[in-house]
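*** Query protein ***
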Amino acid sequence: MLPAWSVFAILMLAAAGLACWPVLRERSTAKPAKLLLAGAIVALVLGIGAGSYLMLGRPELAVRAFTPVEKRDYAGAVAALARAMSKNGNAQDDPRGWILLARAYAQLGDQRDAAAAYRRGIVTMVGQLEAELRTRPDDPDGWQRLIRSEMVLGDEDRARSALAGARKVFAQNPAALAALDAEARDLKLGR
C-alpha cells in the first residue's frame, strides 16, 4: 500500500502534466514565453486544487483511507461510542444504538461487552414496549413482542405477568386470546 503522501504527489504530477500538455505537445521547440505560460498554468492549477482541498476538503480522511485496517483504532472508536451512549440520556433510550454498539463489540471479539450491550438494547426496547402498551393497550402484536422480549431477557415471571395483562385486555377478543395462547405454548409459559 502506498503512503498517502505518495498518492498525493502522483495526483499533483498528473494535474501538472494535464495543465502543461497543450504546450508540450507542440513539435516545435517551445519558446521561453510558452514555457513560462505553462509554468504559470501549472502553478495556478496546483495552487487552486491544493488550496481548495485544504480549505474545503477533509485531508485526514485521505490519510485514514490509506492506513491499513489493522492500524486503525477501532477499539478506541467503540470505547468512545460506549462512553457517549452511557452518558447521553437520549442515546440510552435508543435500542438501535445499543444494538450497533453490540455488533461493534462482537466484531472486535469482545463477546462479554457485546452481550451486555445487546441486553441493554433489549431492556430499552422492553421499556419502550411497556410505555406504548400503557397508552395503546389494544395492540396484540405489541403484547406478544413484550412477552417474547421478557423471555429473551430470562425473566419468566415478567413474561407471565405480561401474558396475564394481555389476557385481561383481550378478554372479549377470541382471536387475540388464541394468538396469545399460541405464543404462550411456543414459549412454554403455563397459565
